[in-house]
Amino acid sequence: MAASENDPTARPEGLDILAEENSGVEVSDRPTGSRRLGLVTLLLSLGLLLLDGIAVALLAADLVTPAATIALVTMLASIVVGVIALVAVVLRRGRVPAVAAVLLSVLSNPFVLVFLLARVLPGF
Predict the structure, then answer these.
(1) The pTM is what?
(2) Integer Cα distance of 113 and 37 in angstroms
(3) How does 56-69 read in b/e, with b if 16+ C-beta sit within 10 Å?
(4) Helices and strands, number each (H, E), in the chain
(5) CB contact at 8 A, 105 and 89
(6) pLDDT > 90: what percent of the chain?
């Protein structure tokens, strides 16, 4: 058994091209990401939270049909906005606002919001 087979610092023969210092691709050559996607998802999640509040207010006023319609729209849209915000987090396109958008999109889901309101306000 050769000593090079047991050497953990030995490099495989075919992968030397990947280890070159001047391979032509620099880390700084990457285009900088725009923060716009994270900000847009944050604004959309705030809008969905507002719509969810309107749905709860309509439900309190015994207008069940419009409240259910708005709640259904916000539920579906919150899933879409949450997925887009996760993509923005992964792509580093406005990471901090996108994380806030993920949290707000979870909160703007009507089932989550009603559950939390029932926990905080027992008479709800």
Answers:
(1) 0.69
(2) 25
(3) bebbeeeeeeebee
(4) 5, 0
(5) no
(6) 50
